Amino acid sequence: MTLPQTDRPKVRLLWLQSGGCGGCTLSLIGAEGPDLITSFEAAGIEVLWHPALSEKSGSEVTDLLQAIVEGRETVDILCLEGSVMRGPNGTGRFHMLSGTGRPVMEWLSELAAKAAYVVAVGSCAAYGGITAAGANHVEACGLAYDGNKPGGLLGGDFRSGAGFPVINVAGCPIHPDWLTEALHRIAAGRFTHEDLDEWERPLAYTMHLVHHGCARNEFYEFKASAEKLCDLGCMMENLGCKGTQARADCNRRAWNGAGSCLDGNYPCINCTAPGFEEPGHTFTQTPKISGIPVGLPTDMPKAWFVALASLSKAATPARLRENAVADHLARPPVDKQKKRK
Amino acid sequence: MTRLIVGPFNRVEGDLEVKLDIADGAVNEARVVSVLYRGFERILDGKPPFDALVYAPRICGICSVSQSVAAAKALADAMGLEPPPSGRHAVNLIHAAENVADHLTHFYLFFMPDFARAIYAGEPWHADIAERFTAIKGTAAQDVLPARAQFMHILGILAGKWPHTLSVQPGGSTRAIAANETARLAGILAAFRRFLERTLYGDRLERVSELSSVEALESWAAEKPPENSDFRRFLHVSRALELEKLGAFSGPCMSYGAYAYDDGYLFARGVLEDGKVSPLDTGAIAEDLSHAWYAAADAPQLPYDGETRPDADNPDGYTWCKAPRLGGRVVEVGALARQAVNGHPLVRELIARAGGSNVHARVVARVMEIARVVMAMEQWVEAIEPGEPFIRHGAMPDMAQGFGLTEAARGSLGHWAKVRNGVIENYQIIAPTTWNFSPRDSAGTPGALEQALKGAPVRAGEREPVAVQHIVRSFDPCLVCTVH
């Protein structure tokens, strides 16, 4: 066995923000076990510049960007947070990089061509996201997608220096671990094409459905449904919850040490998916046809779902029926050996 | 006269450019440019009203809950809905957790690292400050990030996640809190109190919050060496650099009132000018578009009828930030304004002594507000009644309008919503930094930061004048909100 190399050159990371809210960075600095700075250290990552964390400002930054474009400096990992702003009319004037008088989208194209890996941080940078909602009059798109269509700024065929497509750490916002784990693997040179799903998201977290580990699973099993936002029952039937279809491990690792959307008593809105920002219905209402939810659980045939649902509804224990429409657990489970007074 | 264009301006939330005309070693004129346009008000056109609760928090990753609170209040106003008491405490806790975390993030990660810059290498305090606050590498980041993350477990429990929760609703909070969870919340607050008392203040929260005059603050600071706590470090540097002489703004201070109770606010609503507080006239709030990149309106727009039609070719425009005015006047918002309006004697004295707000006063007010809010949070946890309702439900009328005002960490935030035929007909947002970083209005009056930058010293050869950096960041700006 050889000892780990300690003098390995640092992996150089550059982070830019464009049409977004900055929430992925704010989520990221909440990383725990370990904190973000330690996580970068552990991965051997040197932050060339990050808009919220770095000292460099103004021309110190634009000089660095120019040096990378001209090949005088190198960048291993380029992260973008926020949508690419193409408007108005394809000019990119909705976001000119301050101090440069040039659209951010031009900078991004030139910098992406120099990076070994390009990482889209959050659903905005990946697919357009919230900024592309409504009529998308700002012409927001992702780095390699325009909604669910390949394209975006760099085009669906884009490959970075290391031969990878844009790696889409989608989510609104990201869970800090989704990114720190991906960056660690990338920095170690051990991230492979097999680690990506069909939307180029790290499979590490999209291998799961939000449904996995949901604390409401027993309510789901018996179709004991919540009726109002605050009820403890399953939110799929009435409140628009997409947890049985959404790809993420939100209920298998805690958000902010303790929670998830579902634990907060509000539905999953499938924020890791392209186009989540325009669901075609009120977010907190389930669209139905003849009383059957339009979006069925992933991989489940409709006939089976209908049959199982009606069967399990008929078998719902009173405890679940009662708790499903309460905001505090009203009725505890019963122990057959001893009754509670 | 020389001109400097400073940007990208980092360690602010979002992207910012500042254009400076410099003469005789000082800024003569400043133009503040918000370089990004995002268009949330247009996104909300025609949407079901409750969808605002999904979109609005995503205006901003740092004031996400504030956006939720303003949207929920606007919808509640339109529906005539009031949250139950425990729901109000829960929402106040969620909101306070975000605001306190923002103050901490600002002080440790955004503001203090500028004093570690090489330009100050000759100063006697520099070695200690550089070791503590150098961006990414300083010891402070290693201390504050875990403390902040653990404090935000409050949001995991009460709000599911942060940022971008959907638990904050017009009628309260979706998440009822059980008795054992109040115990967890109290424990998290106790751990955070310990961090603040050991690391930020070096003293009890009670003692810090009771400092009621400049003299009291100065003698408190002198009790121990600057290295005793991060607040003392700041006070020491601030005195050495005379930060009270930087970034003056002498106009009125405004607060919409923060953390609502049944009978008022923890921090009062009002407008402070010349030491006197007058009631806020919400009908006097209007946005001037004359120097922004929007299709021009003939007159300042009242928010209910405000329009957002981007026009990058407006010849007089130089920013995507509109210019909100209160009765035609420029006002400053933020922690300083909030504490001054609420009558904090020390903050009032800092303003009175300098003839206006300034870098030193803004930071002191912000850091001292943390102590007051955390003490209030401890009381709210006690006041929660597990088993009581946390939310009331209601229906949105087909035709309605409402507005919601609140205080984000960085100042006054308002949403104005009109509903017609069951969908949003118009939605207007005026964010805190829109007030502070507004451009000139049709009378040619510069915005608060533009005024505060006038006279800022520029050392020979400086491309990014460090004084300008201190002044800009002292407002704790959030540009992504500004350009919603």
Written overview of the protein:
The complex is a heterodimer of chains A (341) and B (484). Chain A contains 10 helices and 13 strands. By secondary structure, chain A is an alpha/beta fold. Classes of the chains: A alpha/beta (341), B alpha+beta (484). At the A-B interface, helix 1, helix 2, helix 3 and strand 5 of A face helix 4, helix 6 and helix 7 of B.
Question: Quaternary status of these chains?
Answer: heterodimer
- Biggest sheet features of chain B: 3 strands, antiparallel
Give the beta-strand count of chain B: 13
Rounded to the nearest angstrom, the radius of gyration of chain B is 22 Å
Shape of chain A: elongated
How confident overall, as mean pLDDT of chain B? 96
Counted up, domains of chain A total: 2
Strand content of chain A: 5-15%
CATH superfamily of chain B: Cytochrome-c3 Hydrogenase, chain B
Q: Shape of chain B from CA axes?
A: globular
| Structural class by helix and strand composition of chain B | alpha+beta
Helical stretch tally of chain A: 10
Strand order of the largest sheet of chain A: 2-1-3-7-11
Classification by helices and strands of chain A: alpha/beta
Helix content of chain B: 40-55%
What's the main sheet of chain A like? 5 strands, parallel
